[in-house]
Amino acid sequence: MLKIAYDSIYAHPLPEGHRFPMLKYELIPLQLKHEGIITQENLYAPDILDEEIVLLTHEKQYWEKLKNLSLTYQEEKRTGFPLSAQLVERELRIAQGTIDGCFYAIENGVAFNVAGGTHHAGSNWGEGFCLLNDQAIAANYLIHKQISKSILIVDLDVHQGNGTAQIFQNNPQVFTFSVHGDKNFPFRKEQSDVDVPLPDGVEDDEYLTMLDQKLDEVFDKAKPDFVFYLSGVDVLATDKLGKLALSPAACQKRDEMVFKKCLAQQLPVQVSMGGGYSPNIKDIVDAHCNTFKVANDLYF
């Protein structure tokens, strides 16, 4: 069964300017239910992540500032939204949902988190609407528990996974792969194991040809026993922040390529949804739902 982490706190209320992007967290499961792709049985609500697991990835001083709501003005500004206890709880539940998803992926081949993909959070900073790095936390958990020895993180959000790259820059057990807009946020990039910086305006054929080649390369280099996939839909031509020009069909084909690569090598894959900022919320929700549909068709 396809298992999906979702909690109502994912749609944490934010000030007026930030509410729109959060709507998708409510609408994605509703749309999937409406189309008969899932039922309530597919959804699970994660608990709050234990502090000791946070500290496998994030520095203690940074975590204490988050926990005590004591980020400096500049540190809070860098995150993009006002810090609150509910927001910290939200991030803890998202990260736990990604860890839980790892076990569902090991059991079923694939599992999802409706939220997550908080790849801008580094070991000692929050940035770009990310406070705790859910897939980095889950990867370190798998290694710490000796469940996995070699992990590949495939980050196809339009923004570089700078926090993920920084966290694992000296860890040979985690291979980081990021395809992103070269001139897009974050403007100070970190170094992944493989980075593919794309110029503005890249379209379907160029993107998919590149991805086909690079997936072969990174799977060969990483030789993973577990895969994390960050499936941001801010690569769409309709996205107001993305600067790329992919069609919904190409975005769906991208997902299919990743899943088929994992299936061919019998590798479990945990999927976090990442970004999406098209002006029409339907474009965002449809593209995210397509990722679920592709996985459901291939695995179940």
Automatic annotation (TrEMBL):
Q: Which CDD domains match?
A: HDAC_classIV
Highest taxon of source: Bacteria
Among Gene3D superfamilies, the record links this protein to:
Histone deacetylase domain
Q: Which UniProt keywords apply?
A: Hydrolase
Q: Which InterPro entries match?
A: HDAC_classIV, HDACs, His_deacetylse_dom, His_deacetylse_dom_sf, Ureohydrolase_dom_sf
- Which Pfam families does this chain map to? Hist_deacetyl
Where is each Histone deacetylase domain found? Answer: 23-290
Protein name, UniProt field: Histone deacetylase
